[in-house]
From TrEMBL, chains A, B:
Species annotation: Actinidia chinensis var. chinensis (Chinese soft-hair kiwi)
Superkingdom of this protein's organism: Eukaryota
InterPro entries: Rossmann-like_a/b/a_fold, Universal_stress_UspA, UspA
Lineage: Eukaryota, Viridiplantae, Streptophyta, Embryophyta, Tracheophyta
SUPFAM superfamilies: Adenine nucleotide alpha hydrolases-like
A Pfam family: Usp
Protein name stated in the entry: Universal stress protein
Domain UspA, chain residue ranges per copy: 5-153
UniProt-listed Gene3D superfamilies: HUPs (3.40.50.620)
Length: 158, 158
């Protein structure tokens, strides 16, 4: 029964995802044989070609500064996640991964590639319009990943 | 950290839900302070009034036999669940509940009323048409319950 488990937690800049991580540490890490995979997905770079069509061009340094911002965001999310699991005083093995692209697709591919046994994600309480526009990452993952999926809601009073 | 946890597992006649129960016993029951709430939701009784409209009436004994069938189905699901957790040799506290109505709505109300901390359910791999017709119970619950939701997929090879 005690085999290594690999738990993938999808983290982003939201408090919801940090709550999901801490819920996971409290509720799923009872065994010492767990590897925690932290995955952050950077949004895809803007579609330059469609901007060209409107005769608008990004200057090289604007692109560089967007890439720098996206790299810094990834670092800040990972440090925030580190703080969360350091608080738990756990000796769990942690692997950090940064992907890029459409979050829901990258997460599903990562589950497969990294051999995750459990996928944990926070639930964003988007309103109707944002949900209709963006779709729900957790709905998509529930349909596409093969492992159990934990969707963690952040209680209103936390 | 060690407070009582109440885990609600939605069970039905599917193998998927029994797999979800056994996954839950393996992965979530490391603490002895867990109460397992097994919930089975009976489908709502047929809408007699709409059948009246087509001048078709159920005889009293037909209704009685449908109710008997539904009761027997509930009992058989619960015995199957009992077998699953007996196999785990766990001394976990179990409470069995049977509801009636639209499964997704009854499950969400039960989570609230029974004070569940975690909701666990199997994932049925319905095809496109059945999903479009029925909607997905887990999608609905992900949107409506306030506690973490675990959607357990049954691996193809089990």
């Amino acid at each position: 029964m005690v085999k290594e488990r690999r738990i993938l937690v999808a983290v982003d800049e939201s408090e919801e995802s940090m709550y999901a991580l801490s819920w996971c540490l409290t509720n799923l890490l009872s065994l010492n044989t767990t590897t925690l995979l932290l995955l952050y997905v950077k949004p895809p770079p803007p579609a330059y070609s469609s901007l060209d069509a409107t005769e608008y061009l990004f200057a090289g340094d604007a692109i560089a500064s967007m890439e720098k911002y996206s790299r810094e965001l990834a670092n800040s999310v990972m440090s925030r996640a580190e703080e969360v699991y350091r608080d738990f005083n756990t000796s769990v093995k942690v692997e950090k991964k940064v992907g890029s692209g459409d979050a829901k697709e990258v997460i599903c591919v990562a589950v497969e590639k990294l051999g995750a046994d459990i996928l944990v994600m926070g639930s964003h309480d988007y309103g109707f319009f944002k949900r209709a526009l963006l779709g729900s990452v957790s709905d998509y993952c529930a349909k596409h990943v093969k492992c159990p999926l934990v969707v963690v809601k952040r209680p209103k009073n936390v």
